[in-house]
Amino acid sequence: MNHHDNNDDDLIINGVPMGRRAFLGMLSGALAAGTLMSPSWSWAQAGGQATLTVSAPANPSSLDPATGGSGSDHALLFPMYDTLVNWDPTTLSATPGLAQKWSFPDPKTLVLELRPGVTFHDGTPFNAEAVKTNLDRSRTAEFSNIRQDLSSVDRVEVNGEHVVTLHLKNPDSALPLILSDRAGMMVSPKALADNNNRVDRNPVGAGFMRFQKWDDGSEVAMTRYADYNGPNKPAVGAISFKIITDSATRLRSVMSGQAQVAYHLDGRQKQMIERLPTLQGFADPTIYCYQFYMNMARKPLDDVRVRQAINYAVDREAFVRVAMAGAGEPAFMNLPKSHWAYDPQTAKLYPHDPDKARALLKEAGHADGIELDLRGYNDQSSVQMQEVLMEQLSKAGIRGRFRTGTIADMSAAYFGQRKEGHMLLSAWTGRPDPSLTYSLLYSSTSYFNAGQVKAPEGFDQALLDSRSSDDQGKRQEALARAQRIAMENALVVPLAFRQSIVATTAEVQGFKNNLLGKPKFDNVSLKA
Fold it and tell me: Residue 92: its pLDDT value, please?
């Protein structure tokens, strides 16, 4: 981010140029929230090094990789759980992790060679048996939300202390990148055995940070694991994630010095960050997509014409401009223009057309429009998005009201056993491999397919084809088919891809954004 020149109406506050309205808003909000304090702060010491304090947007749904259901969990999971495979932050291509090498001796066999000398936070060894325990649990346990991730795995075989073979039901070139996400986060088998096979609130991984405490809705704290010998070497002794759901308050926490990092900030805050020379700003594109999830098992959303009408009714360009202050890209599928698997033909399916939306509703037997039970989140940014969308939908005869709550609570109520609401305004936070995105969103057994509705004809085959080759051209063609089928059948209402907007103090060194928009702190340090 570049700093903007000051204008005649700006105030200079401690050398910082700031518009009067922005300053007054910041001041009153800080006083109300109790966050205004001296710019100098005390760093808690851990192992002779400072604590990195991070303002995070959401309470985690779980600290167990297999049981959580929120994409916002990842930023808290990454420090505690090294993954079998890593990914490059700018390209999302696979890089070594706990598996230092991997190979496909044939299309239905994946061999992982593990890094030796790794231990879990409880001191037990990380080895091939631990990998088998984790993968078998994740793909078979009834409580696992990531069974679909590993649906191509037939069995896991131990071939030595540090060699694991995955025998597949079908070729799956996406599997290495799948193992860079939740499915590749390794949990201590001893911790699983001691805790009835789940570690929702007492995680034990093999990452550079070990769990310290979780105060619900307030803080998740972790300290450096002294015996960590992996590639991630942040020069901090601890990380404290402070849960602050309001985006403006997260930014104020960095402005006041209570935190060194605030992420998942809004487009409206970009200009303020740019105008504050005491802050470092980051704003980069992501595959993080705001969207309406739809429970297609509930009437009237079981009718494809109704779902298509909703897609025609939303004005994506206006949504980006008004609700996101321009800091995003209109979304017409679950991949942005910059992605290698983007399909330009699919992007033409739903231009903004309220008249077309009304006509489709009438054809479906709803000449007077429809009333929907809508669910969303209660932070200020989400509420503003809800207001913009309700105004757009109402012009096509689509009415309803939002019931709101925290991310963890509303997501669990919508996707979990209760299946509450017709649609949830949330986001798909993306996955390193695009085939996993489409599998998790639309396969009939996926957690994120709230109605557990069978995918349209041809969809499953397109996904299989996308994984049967490592040739990117062939994969692109197959994924284009999957995307067209998903959007022709209006399985989702994609809205916009957000930018990853992060503010840090000048003391923070080594932070990098990534294409997933889920921050990692693997090489961060604090300059004195």
Answer: 93
Give the predicted TM-score (pTM) of the model. Answer: 0.84
In the predicted model, what is the mean pLDDT of residues 419-430? 95
Q: Locate all alpha helices (DSSP H) within 142-224, ordered by sequence.
A: 175-178, 189-194
CB 183 within 8 Å of CB 153: no
Beta bridge partners of 185: 83
Name which of 278, 74, 133 is nearest 141 in CA terms: 133
d(CA 33, CA 45): 26
Distance CA 297, CA 202 (A): 36
Positive or negative, the CA dihedral 137, 142, 147, 153 is: positive
> How far apart are the C-alpha atoms of 16 and 22, rounded to whole Å?
12
Mapping DSSP to helix (H, G, I), strand (E, B) and coil, where does residue 441 land?
helix
Q: What is residue 173's DSSP assignment?
A: T
- Cα pseudo-dihedral 236, 241, 247, 249, rounded to 10: -90
Q: What is the pLDDT of residues 84-115, one digit of tens each?
A: 999 999 999 999 999 999 999 999 999 999 99
Contact between 34 and 221 under an 8 Å Cβ cutoff? The reply is no
User: Six-digit token pair at 329?
Assistant: 């890209």
How far apart, in whole angstroms, are the C-alpha atoms of residue 161 and residue 179? 19
Identity of the residue numbered 287: I
Residue 250 CA from chain centroid, whole number: 18
Q: Quote the CA–CA distance of 411 and 375 in Å, as a whole number.
A: 9
- Going by their DSSP bridges, the two strands 238-243 and 49-56 should be labelled as parallel
Q: Note the pLDDT tens digit of each residue in 121-175.
A: 999 999 999 999 999 999 999 999 999 999 999 999 999 999 999 999 999 999 9
269 pLDDT more than 60: yes
pLDDT score at 96: 97
Q: Supply the Cα-derived Rg of the chain in whole angstroms.
A: 23
Which residues on neighbouring strands pair with residue 376, listed in sequence order?
Answer: 404
| Exposure b/e, 73-94, CB count within 10 A at least 16 = b | bbbbbbbbbbbbbbbebeebeb
Tell me whether strands 279-294 and 238-243 are parallel, antiparallel or unpaired.
unpaired
**Residue 59 reports pLDDT greater than 50:** yes
Q: Are strands 163-168 and 109-114 parallel, antiparallel or unpaired?
A: antiparallel
Give how far Cα 211 sits from Cα of 59, 70, 79, 192, 199, Å: 15, 19, 9, 15, 11
